[in-house]
């Protein structure tokens, strides 16, 4: 009897251990299934929002490659239930709008929408509004597109020591000269961008007042307001900075519908 007593004590421990292991495995499986379901729901939402953004961009007569959408925040399903999303990032490549017959190109426009409100029914049916409390956009305007707007043969723009530099061939008093200078980029409170030439010179410029006057006239001719195309999502330009790859544009907006309302 004494020998059999310890054996009866071991079995419940083993059985209890098996139950605990089984419970842990079930919880892991359930957690995995929930995580998979969460990611599947994210993918569906991203496709739905991408389709709606595509419609919105087309409605504003702006061309681009297919939008790339990423919904941030985890778990996603909790955000679905609440109808509010921490962040939706949208990337538009090869953005192009037409101004005065010239194509203005942004190789890439990144849009970061925060505190986004969208009902479950909107995501399910595509009907209704997806509204972001704040939207920030960053993109780069190619220098070739900007130079085309100035409509000066041979004119080239680029970044030099953090400034926007201009180079162009100019005929002055029968001489073909190359002018160089610095262009100031000014952004108004309304988001309008203008170029102002503050410093323009040409090597070999004749030392006569008429030559300098003609050079100043050329500088005034390229000091213009830049007629940028309407940016998607109601974005207003706030800052423009010359970079080696182009003119970097920072824009923002508030309480913005980021989809095309159907119906």
UniProtKB/TrEMBL annotation:
It comes from the Bacteria. It holds the Pfam family LmeA. This is DUF2993 domain-containing protein.
């Amino acid at each position: 009897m004494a020998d059999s007593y310890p054996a009866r004590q071991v079995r419940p421990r083993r059985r209890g251990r098996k139950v605990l292991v089984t419970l842990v495995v079930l919880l892991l499986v359930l957690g995995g299934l929930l995580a998979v379901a969460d990611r599947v729901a994210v993918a569906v939402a991203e496709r739905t929002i991408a389709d709606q953004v595509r419609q919105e961009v087309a409605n504003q007569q702006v061309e681009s490659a297919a939008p790339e959408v990423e919904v941030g925040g985890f778990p996603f399903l909790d955000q679905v239930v609440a109808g509010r999303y921490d962040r939706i990032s949208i990337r538009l490549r090869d953005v192009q709008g037409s101004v005065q017959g010239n194509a203005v190109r942004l190789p890439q426009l990144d849009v970061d929408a925060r505190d986004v409100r969208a009902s479950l029914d909107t995501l399910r049916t595509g009907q209704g509004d997806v509204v972001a409390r704040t939207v920030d956009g960053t993109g780069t305007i190619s220098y070739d597109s900007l130079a085309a707007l100035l409509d000066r043969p041979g004119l080239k723009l680029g970044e030099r020591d953090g400034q926007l530099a201009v180079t162009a061939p100019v005929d002055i008093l029968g001489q073909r000269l190359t002018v160089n200078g610095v262009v100031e980029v000014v952004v108004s409170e309304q988001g309008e961008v203008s170029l102002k030439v503050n410093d323009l010179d040409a090597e070999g410029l004749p030392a006569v007042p008429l030559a300098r006057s003609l050079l100043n006239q050329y500088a005034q001719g390229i000091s213009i307001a830049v007629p940028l195309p309407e940016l998607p999502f109601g974005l207003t330009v706030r800052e423009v900075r010359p970079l080696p790859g182009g003119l970097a544009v920072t824009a923002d907006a508030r309480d913005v519908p980021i989809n095309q309302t159907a119906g």
